[in-house]
Protein: Leucine-rich repeat-containing protein 2
Amino acid sequence: MGLLRKVDVPVYDLSLIRGIWEVRVKKQRQKQKKEQERVEKSALARIDQEWQYRIYCKTLKSDERNLLHHYLERTTLTNTIQPYTDGDEQDQKDEQEQKDVEQKLTLQLNGDRWMDFPRELQWMTYLREWHVRGTRIRQLPDYLPLFTQLSVLEIPKNAIAELPPEIGKLTGLRELNISYNRLSKVPPELGNCENLERLELTGNYNLSELPFELSSLKQLVHLDIAENRFVSIPICALRMSSLQLLDLSNNKLSDLPQDMDRLEQLVTLFIHKNNLSYLPHCLTKISTLKMIVVSGDELNCIPTRLCSNPDIKFIRLYDNMSEEKKKKKKEEEEKKKKEKWRRWREQREEEVKDGSEKEFIEAYVSSLKDRDTIPYATTKVTISCLM
Structure:
């Protein structure tokens, strides 16, 4: 008997490795941020923009040029001393001035007549809000990173297929709504928008995952990823510590993670129209939770503390199917049962076949022991007799 060799098996703490990896990611992100600030402070981008503007103005007529200059004028509020007026009149005047300023700092595009963003938009870098809805625009412009003061980017119900990585340079962004477009992925650079408070990605039917880098969105309070193809809750969502509303409805979830109590500030949870059959007990540990909306058709295991807690509005939605839909669903279930039975029979026949093959090989190998020479090749002949 040989000597037993001692083998050292390394044992690692996965949480420690993950912590080291997250520190490295954070350092790399800080390095990229410094490089980005250095490039932004450079005068090259501003000089290039000014020259592009001059070239464009050369192509315009005098009246068109004057109209463009007037269109690009900015009005800013000054802190000059105003003469004394009545309180109500002064409030109304201030409100009107505020509305005028907000209107001048907002882009509005509506309707399917828009195929692309207007060319003069590239010189309106002072804009703070974009509201683009129901157009046929397919992509965001290349000069988007120049809009460093942008705080609201609302572009739902368009034909946008992807978000450019440069969106991560909009560090002042607070709201991003890109619902009902054609996204299939989200760039990791979006995690650089650390001031983001509201993110809506509803109805991008090819979207099935979010990058881990979105974990850095610690200010996010509203996350809507309904009507997509998620089969599980994104890991990054569980690390958004300020999250108050999470909408995961109408996806393909089959279960919820056991560490959902990480979301210590969660107030509202929408998880209806999924394939959930139970709810995890960890939901009872979220003290801030006030509302849960689920589908009651397939749900059969619910923690008692969720149902009986008077502070939580527990809402079950049931599909009120018509007779025709019920009949169709029943036919589909029967079809699935037949298909399952057919596969079982085929598998059983295959097992029987494999068993007979194995018996033949064993008998053949045992017969070789009585032979003087072993044949180089053997032909198997199967004879079936009809009685």
